[in-house]
Amino acid sequence: MLMRDIDSTVGTPRHVRGEGWDSKRLVVAADDVGFSLHDTTVKEGTHMELQYQHHVEANYCFGGEGEVVDVASGEKFELRPGRVYVLDRHDRHIVRATKGDLRLVCVFTPALAGGEKHTPDGGYAPIAKASGSATTD
Which residues on neighbouring strands pair with residue 65, listed in sequence order? Predict the structure, then answer.
């Protein structure tokens, strides 16, 4: 059984920050369970364009409000507590935190190593190339 809490990630390579966001990676590739699980905060007013070409990501909102936009179609989806969205087709998307800090539980497969930051194209390197050290933000 694996047991971990948020406090145990703070100040470690599993606590990753970028402009307008903060991610505490509670479960990572080294835990060998096939996915990673993150507690992520997107600060109010933040706008991030992302695309995970090498990962599938599911996001469960449990705080704040915002929206996710499918860049290809322009379709907008409201984010609020109790909503989930899944980027199952490596969708290029925009995440906006509009009312309070957006709080998300994020699940990635394949799992992240733990220390990754977004590459310039808004994604993460393939798992074979990823490492516990941060890449370019």
Answer: 99
Q: Residue 129: is its pLDDT beyond 70?
A: no
- With a cut of 90, say whether residue 67 has pLDDT above it: yes
Quote the percentage of the chain above a pLDDT of 90: 79
Question: What's the CA gap between 120 and 135, in Å, rounded?
Answer: 10
Which one-letter DSSP state was computed for residue 19?
Answer: T
Show the tokens assigned to 7: 């406090």
- Letter string b/e over residues 85-124, b meaning 16 or more CB atoms within 10 A of that residue's CB: bebeeebbbbbbbeeebbbbebbbebbbbbbbebeeeebb
CATH number at 17-109: 2.60.120.10
Q: What pLDDT was estimated at residue 121?
A: 75
Prediction pTM value: 0.86
Mean pLDDT of 41-62: 95
116: left (phi over 0), alpha (psi -120 to 50) or beta: beta
Is residue 45 left, alpha or beta, with left meaning phi > 0 and alpha meaning psi from -120 to 50? left
**Three-state SS for 105?**
strand
Length of the chain, in residues: 137
